[in-house]
């Protein structure tokens, strides 16, 4: 039995809402395929912003809770991502990408490179025309060079 992504989002929202207590606020729940993996993103915020420690603490509370949902709504294994739009702010300009060199980023493309349209990894270089990214493909680290004009969206990402 396959459950629609909207239903999974509703079930997860209902399950996690009660445990995300002030000062935290549940902003959004997203579920979908990212590259070859299913990703459940739980976006949270608090007035002074979310820290990496906050996401780790929330993961410890939320992850076991998701395992208690019966019947299991997830059709496939998934990665849990707990984050804030603040930590994952968009990188919309060449300058913001230059400033992000050395950071962990998520890059969505207009056209696939080697059948991949979304890369997540360490931005190691950006010369104004091409981005160089080190990313994990299963257990191996690979490097990809991405022409800037093929970038649909870029944002900072959180590595958990």
Structure keywords:
2 domains; SH3 type barrels; GMP Synthetase, Chain A, domain 3; RimP_N_sf; Ribosome_maturation_RimP; about 160 residues; 5-stranded antiparallel sheet; ribosome biogenesis; alpha+beta; single chain; 3 helices
List the helices and strands and how they pair.
Elements: H1 5-16, E1 25-34, E2 37-45, H2 52-66, E3 78-83, H3 94-99, E4 104-113, E5 116-126, E6 130-137, E7 140-147, E8 151-156
Parallel strand pairs: 2-3
Antiparallel strand pairs: 1-2, 4-5, 4-8, 5-6, 6-7
Structural class: alpha+beta
| Percent in strands | 35-45%
Query: What's the CATH C level of the largest domain?
Result: Alpha Beta
CATH superfamily of the largest domain: RimP-like superfamily, N-terminal
**Helix coverage percent:** 10-25%
How many helical stretches?
3
